[in-house]
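Note to self: the last two entries modelled the partners one at a time, which told us nothing about the interface. This time every component goes in together.
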Amino acid sequence: MKPVVVVGASLAGMSAVQSMRSGGYGGPVVVLDASPEMPSDRPPLSKQVLAGEWDLDRAALPMARNLAELDVDLRLGLSAVGLDPDSLELSLSDGSMISAGGIVVATGSVARRIPGEVPSGVFVLRTGADALALRDELDRGPDRVLVIGAGFIGAEVAATCRGRGLEVTMVEAAEVPLQRVLPTDMGSFVADLHRNNGVDVRLGVGLDSFLADENGAVRGVALTDGSEIAAQVVVVGIGAVPDVSWLEGSGLELLPPQEGGGIRCDESLRAAPKVLAAGDCASWPNGSFNGERMRVEQWESALEQGTHAGKQMLCEIGAGQDPGPFCTVPWFWSDQYDAKIQMAGRAGPGDEVHVVDGSVSEGRFVALFKRGGECRAALGVNRPRLAIRARMKLAETLAWDSMLELFEP
Amino acid sequence: MKINVNYDLCEANAICMAVAPEVFEVRDDDNLYLLMDEPPEELRPKMEEAVRRCPKQALEIEG
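The predicted structure of the combined assembly is written out below.
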């Protein structure tokens, strides 16, 4: 019997394995991952692990704790370099081939880096090894940490470094933090949150060049406005790109960045018959949002997509029922200082923002994002109960009036 | 099967409430309340999912 091969041992891939086993599949499963070690769960990396509160073992994926029970042929340090969707053959980095009965592509994404040579002391934060390397450097007590990019990773690293008592400057080329997911006035709230916690926040300014000493160690950066900032540690958090270049020419359709990137899948996460994608690398029409094509780089989505891909795979190979289309309300949380930021749905630049509970000034509120007669997203800051209820409502309907009922006294 | 909440770790993110509102409730005081200490066996898959998803690793299944 040919194995189901899962490419990628992070949350999406391992959720697919878990889901196949829970669905009663007893056949062989091979899991490949380019990393020489089992990948970590990522949310704690920029928070508890970087803070020094957790060791890396504690940030293991839940499924990594019962590998024996999952009965997988785990091959670490080995990546797939090619895939033939017709023959279901994978070519591997060691020159070997695997003939699969089905393939789940869950290669995720890789941190976007600044092109060219960078001095030592410049870090990205994507993997457990990245987190440990950065933590070691923070343990030395640098005079200042410079964070480039005020997305999730940048903002959480800034908050964690302040929690460690370090001086922090955060530089963002956009006018507001978290611009990709939050409309402008909500992003301003995040900028204020960081300023109130002692971060030197510089918005609308980009990196011009790194400054290094004679040993090639970073000593700061020059910015596009002509200013220079001295720092012994620089963290680059400028986003991630789906790790799909190995599929170029495979016959699977890859979307260009302006269409969101990733592997083009159908509503059931199928890239081809018996070839599924899950997690950061998958683009699919989301039935919860009128079939809008989405690619989501979020923890919860990776878990849910992996789980769905596992069920769908059993259907593809004749070992389970059709689970139907994959529908979800994207969801993220981010802990920064004492703010629990939770967001459900997907806001767009033209959405009307309505604060329906609490107030932005007191740092405790729920904001809804309205487009036409629909509620497209809900943002909660220190309102976990309401944020979760809003998310459950979005999963039921996008109708604006139904959402408003939740917030009526 | 018994659910234990480590309240030193719990930050009431309410993720568990999305998974199993019949067992977990975050109230207006932003604290997590268990609606039943010993959920019936048929809820085990949901309880396992809640444990897996808790960002603070504050939940545990006993038995």
